[in-house]
What does this fold into?
Amino acid sequence: MASPRLETFCCPNRDAATEFVVSFQPVLFGALGLGSASLSLVFAVLQILPKRKGYRRLGQYALPRPASSSRILFIISICDILGCAGIIVRSSVWLGLPNFIDGISVANGTYAGPEVFCVGSAMWIQLFFSASFWWTFCYAVDVFLVVKTSAGISTIILYHMITWGLAVLLCVEGVAMLYYPSISDCEQGLQHAIPHYVTTYAPMLLVLVANPVFFNRTVSAVTSLLKGRQGIYTENERRLANEIKIRFFKIMLVFCICWVPNIINESLLFYLEMQTDIGAFGFRNIRNAALITWFIMGILNPMQAFLNTLAFHGWTGLDVDLQPRGRRELAWDSASTSVPHVAGNNPLVGTTLLYQSHVQEAKKNGSNGQQHSDAISVLSEGSESSTVEIHISSDLRDYEDVDADGESMESSVRH
It folds into this structure.
């Protein structure tokens, strides 16, 4: 799990609230975290690996370079996977080397190995999950800009600077304040630890507050674009807008499920920390609630890696394609010739044709409609129907002239 309490635990003179939750059933907690992180990492990797039925299984045109939004989704998955890897390493050491971990509680010890591992693993986990938060925020900004201003792939460089710069800066600043003047003799008091907790939870709260606003405005803008194509809002347009709305809802649902328990747990522990005796009978219910949310965090935090891939792409299956890229492209080309024979049995064809009808309508309305169709295609990336739809409007534009020439030649022959 990713909690600033585990970084506070690295201090031998830690506060009573941190000692209370971290020392309660540490073997069970470590086992749950290890199992959850391992499952999430394995399935997340399987989700993002290329499949034999790839992105061109229904198309006849090569897909162009991915848009910034699709790259952001991939980077979020990588950050989540690396965060899970840190949880696996930390939990494995805690379970396999209990004497090594016990050395953290020895104040002013001559051997700093346990403290270094504790701090290093905690910073690794915090850094990549914090980066995942920042990238999730950038995704909401990017899809909004795509609809409003047709932002291109060049913005990905700016996103890298923002996300990694802020993630590293806040992580280092929070840890420096927490472990002052040294790891073996941390400064005590809430006022010294609060900056560390603020730097940890600030990007999380930003996503919870700002992303729904951006997603809602994006959906409204998409609806306006669809209505503006021909001045009507048919069932096809409504279905496409609803798919985009559902996708945004899935992303926020996964984020809330995985991280709202952290906010609840931290609020309870802060309340206990302000009491003179956290073991008093009157605080029993609060202690129980803190322990329950603590174990929930240990399970749900690492599961974000797998659940995010489900929200982004749906279930992609287990038919992994590990062939070299050249051979995979040949397989795609041969498979595309058989599409017309199986189209009637594939539910994705209907959605693809639906989207192509939007593209054709946009073309009738001129270049502005083409720009809008590109924006909407980016928003639908990763959904069940988007494996073929990504930038298909751009591909159709490339081949439209060729098709028109062919039709004119046929008509001339007839006459």
Q: What stands out?
A: Residues 190-230 form the longest helix (41 residues). Residues 178 and 193 are 5 Å apart (CA to CA). The first strand starts at residue 181 and ends at 182.
